[in-house]
Design a protein that fits this description.
Number of domains of chain A: 1
GO biological process, one term (chain B): transmembrane transport
Shape of chain A: globular
Order of helices and strands of chain B: HHHHHHHHHHHHHH
Structural class of chain A: mainly alpha
Number of domains of chain B: 1
CATH topology of chain B: MetI-like fold
CATH architecture of chain A: Orthogonal Bundle
Main location (chain B): membrane
Largest sheet of chain A: 2 strands, antiparallel
Membrane topology (chain B): Multi-pass membrane protein
Strand order of the largest sheet of chain A: 1-2
CATH class of chain A: Mainly Alpha
Subcellular location (chain B): Cell membrane
Helix content of chain A: over 70%
Keywords (chain B): Cell membrane, Membrane, Transmembrane, Transmembrane helix, Transport
Number of helices of chain B: 14
Oligomer: heterodimer
Strand content of chain B: under 5%
Radius of gyration of chain A: 27 Å
Shape of chain B: globular
Strand content of chain A: under 5%
CATH superfamily of chain B: MetI-like
Number of helices of chain A: 13
Largest sheet of chain B: none
Chain lengths: 321, 289
Amino acid sequence: MVNAPSPATTERAQSQRSAGPVAGRRGGTRHRRHQTVVACLFLAPTLLFFAVFLILPLGFALLLSMSHWAGFDLGGIRPVGLDNFTRLFADGSTFLVPVLTHTLLFALGTVVLALTGSVLVATCIDRLRFQGMWRTVYFLPIVTTVVAVGNVWKYMYEPGGLVNGALNTLGLGSVAFLQDPDTALPSVVVVQAWASFGSAILVLTAGLKSVPASYYEAAALDGAGPVVVFRDITLPLLRPCLLFVCITQFLTGLQSFALIIVMTKGGPGDATDVAALEMYQQAFSYGDWGTASAAAFVLFVVVLMVTLAQLWIFRRKGEDA
Amino acid sequence: MIRRRFPWLSCLVVVTGAVLTVVPFLDMVMTSFKGPGESGRLPYRFLPKAFDLSNYRAAIDQLDLPVLFRNSVIATTVITASVLCTSSLAGYALAKLRFPGRNFLFRLVLSTMMFPPFLFLIPHFLILVHWPLAGGNNLLGRGGAGLTVSIAALVMPFLVNNFGIFLTRQFMVSIPDDVLDAARVDGAGEFTVWWRIVLPQTMPVMVTLGLLTFVDAWNEYIWSLLVATANPNLMTLPVGIQLLQDYVDPASTLPIVMAGLVLSILPVLILFVLLQKYYIRGVVLSGLK
């Protein structure tokens, strides 16, 4: 049963049936109507929530993105059309460069680091002993609050912290990781990659397990070296998993700003300012709710395009197979 | 392959990765024992001079840790309970009841999973501040502080979880209809069927969902930060600890902050290590993290 009949058709069906012979079926219709009532009860909390926290907010955000509003009194909302959007993309606006470019760099950097690292570890961890233990260890950052991750790394990046301590031991000079505009963004990217590493490893090890051992044995009989095996067997068979990790991590990277709030608040200057953070600060620090909502929608469109690209690529992969 | 040819190399890679993962945690624990002026001093030393618990006492006093813990525990518990309850109810309706618009609703649940959370941040906050007849607001939602006066502000936007509905629905679809029909014939109402037959069978997926929700709610930062700026009494653990870190001289308070962080992440870490099988299955199923 794909589409249950609407109440109106049920009504009609029932009146037709009451004229006709099939008396036993009338109970079925009553049962169905009873199920509709019960379903409404079961779904009531969810539907109420959807109305208040899903549909209303979307409308509200859309309204705000086309208004000027300094907060407080709802009566002060003044519609301005697409003004907020044109200002975001006007000359001299920092939104496109550097904020959006930072966002893309942040997401891209995270993906590249997390992916290379996790491919390396996942291929090595495959069929190793104590897998459960390694999994637990690699997963610790994922269940840890961003406040702990951010603060620990922030402290580790300090002149008297662990990273500089290690550099000094190796005879290298200290680096002002988070204070130097040139190193601040890469430093935060490293932390984000560190924090998202575990889930990538999880997906990739699951993918590696599905590669039949006979492939490796055949390759070994043919005398293929490890690099060749990795390039010609592991990597192609792992491609769906790689793609999945790549795209989900990219999406997360585009949206996340909690780590940046904790570690740098977008500084020094605007060296680590990303789009979601810009939205947050426009609204809650500068009280420019219209611009903030417009920025949110622009970022939403970027995220949506990435999501659609993801669906498109996966569908094409499905046709290949 | 690489593993078989060069076992020592793959071992080295895995161990190096594990060390890099664990070292920040160890550094946090070590720093939490360091005395005043001992952290941040050059040259860097990994181990503290003495394992002194005074930072933990200071964290409990200065951070007002009991209050932060109370807020975090209440918010997390309410969110987890609500998500479990609403997900299993809605999941049952979407999987096992026939009603008009069922497929449309299921598609709505799926498609709204794609909306990024930051899009809702501003409207959710405004909706709570302008909640009618709460916190001194009039019927039109003006004049008062709205729901930000109560702890409800921390939990409201998280009471229903689309992924939770999706997960339970997928799981319940696989329960055979015969069993449910047999119970119905015996005179059981839909609520009894849900409570007596469906819920016990969905226990594993409930544990997974509960754990995922618990960890996410416990670690939630951005929304709690917004709520706490409106009403400081509603600070949760992450927000309170970050505030101390931001406003007090980091050099002197750093060990206290680290002690607070250790205490705040302990409950989740313990829960994760005990129930990691369920948690990891959830992450694989959600594919989101």
